[in-house]
Amino acid sequence: MDADPRAGMGRPVHPGRSAGSALHAMESVCSDQWYGAHLAVDHLVGLGHRRMVFATRDDGPTVRTVRAALSEIAAAHPLVEGWAWVPGSSGSGAEAQRDGDGTALSAASLREPGVTAAVLHGNVDALMIVQWLAASGARVPRNCSAVAYDNVVVGLGTPPLTAVSPPKGEVGRVAAEVLPGRLDGSYRNPARPVQRTELWPTLTVRGSTRERTSAP
């Protein structure tokens, strides 16, 4: 059996991280959001970034899982000197643009703590935040490297955004392979252990990240 690459990442691998949850009594297939968060932080650290911000909303279980993973990874990473949360937009259109800016992430918030990188959750939020940064004088990637968490439309941005890509299509395919066993009763054998399948996201590197420099 191949060793799990995560074993050397400073985090023990837990086959079932929410033991006791009713969901863990069922067959399940999902994206490994922890590994996706690791890809984002590790990419930025590898480019020399030591202080970063994470911009996410807090309106769903996937977002909360990503937030928890980013917090855990940043806190444990020996090369991350500082990190902070800022809220992503809480909606769309006029609702998101409170005070003309749908996020607390601004050019000033980047400069003051010495932040040079950001992880932005959500396709639309990531694109909007990059636009707001440009309007406030902080250009991506010149002043701030940015990684989007999700990869549906962020490749169409200016610049195209480096992105974590959860394997959504593959999750559906694997789930479809599991489903017949649930329907025909073959998975009901009490001696058979429940299976939880986590699929790893990938990182697509584009023009929104670059090596940290001493001056913009």
TrEMBL record:
Identification of the protein by name: Substrate-binding domain-containing protein
Recorded superkingdom: Bacteria
Pfam families from the UniProt entry: Peripla_BP_3
Entries under InterPro entries matching the protein: LacI/GalR-like_sensor (IPR046335), Peripla_BP_I (IPR028082)
Occurrences of domain Transcriptional regulator LacI/GalR-like sensor (ranges): 41-209
Gene3D superfamilies reported for this sequence: 3.40.50.2300
Extent of the signal sequence: none
SUPFAM superfamilies named in the record: Periplasmic binding protein-like I
Record key words, sorted: DNA-binding, Transcription, Transcription regulation
Transmembrane segments: none
